[in-house]
Write a structure and sequence with these properties.
The chain contains 9 helices and 10 strands. It is of the alpha/beta class. Helix 4 crosses helix 5.
């Protein structure tokens, strides 16, 4: 199955980038994690970031989502009112507000993104309460609606996440993130650790939701088949730097950089 077409992102949504990254760098002591990373992300675009372990993918994602402060460079984000803000020039409360409203973050291990002591419905409802919802009936109705969207039986709304399978926990984490209608979602190996059949079902779900909601997303993965299915455009990283970028099918079907060629040749057919 081929990637979503960039034509799906309408010209009206592409008048200005949602995210603009310029010269981003991050070191851990003498180890270079990211160096001189620059790219733009457009509203409604899904960007895949691929590379081997240690290539800098997760460090980049953590910097972009304000979980980690870069050593150099700029991360410019277009706010809902149209203003462009440099992420680390915003106050800490302003960044936390973005995390609760404009952004979502889907962890590889869903337990890192769920409140395990709360019910499934409360996990979804908590995110709504963080953006100001207070009516219990409306919150519960929205939680039930989102359980259905992510293919979890609505009868399990009061069950604890610990009673769910790994695939169900990941779908619950997705519902928790998307219920507040964010504009940008960060995904860190969203299908990692899941059985192949569960991965396929989850990828179909993610693709459908990104398309339906017009989400912009940055998806970090080592699995090129995941990138092909989800991403409009691809970034290939090695040693903390971008070595190739382009439309997903272009990069995967005709890679230009020797490292990209190696990655593609090692992908199971």
């Amino acid at each position: 199955m081929s990637a979503l077409s960039l034509a799906d992102v309408t010209p009206a949504t592409r008048e200005a980038p949602l995210l603009n990254v310029v010269g981003l760098a991050k070191n851990f002591g003498d180890r270079v994690a990211c160096r001189d990373v620059s790219f733009e992300l457009w509203p409604g675009e899904v960007l895949g970031v691929v590379g081997e372990s240690g290539s800098g993918k997760t460090t980049l994602l953590n910097c972009l989502s304000a979980r980690l402060q870069p050593d150099a460079g700029r991360i410019e984000y277009r706010l809902r009112d149209g203003r462009v803000a440099e992420l680390f020039e915003l106050s800490e409360p302003a960044r936390r507000l973005l995390m609760r409203t404009d952004w979502g973050f889907v962890h590889q291990n869903p337990r890192d993104g769920l409140r395990l002591g709360l019910s499934a419905g409360a996990n979804i409802g908590e995110r709504l309460m963080a953006v100001g919802a207070r009516h219990y009936g409306d919150i519960r109705e929205a939680a039930i609606d989102w359980l259905a969207k992510v293919e979890i039986e609505i009868e399990r709304v009061d069950d604890a996440p610990l009673t769910f399978s790994g695939g169900m926990q990941q779908r619950l984490q997705i519902a928790r993130n998307l219920v507040s209608h964010p504009r940008l979602v960060f995904m860190d190996e969203p299908t990692g650790g899941l059985d192949v059949s569960v991965q396929a079902r989850l990828l179909d779900l993610l693709r459908g939701l990104c398309d339906e909601l017009g989400l912009a997303a940055i998806v970090v993965t080592h699995d090129l088949s995941v990138a092909r299915l989800l991403a409009h455009r691809l970034i290939v990283m090695r040693g903390g730097a971008i070595v190739e970028t382009g439309l997903t099918d272009q990069v995967l079907d005709d890679p230009q950089h020797p490292y990209s060629q190696l990655l593609v040749s090692s992908m199971p057919q």
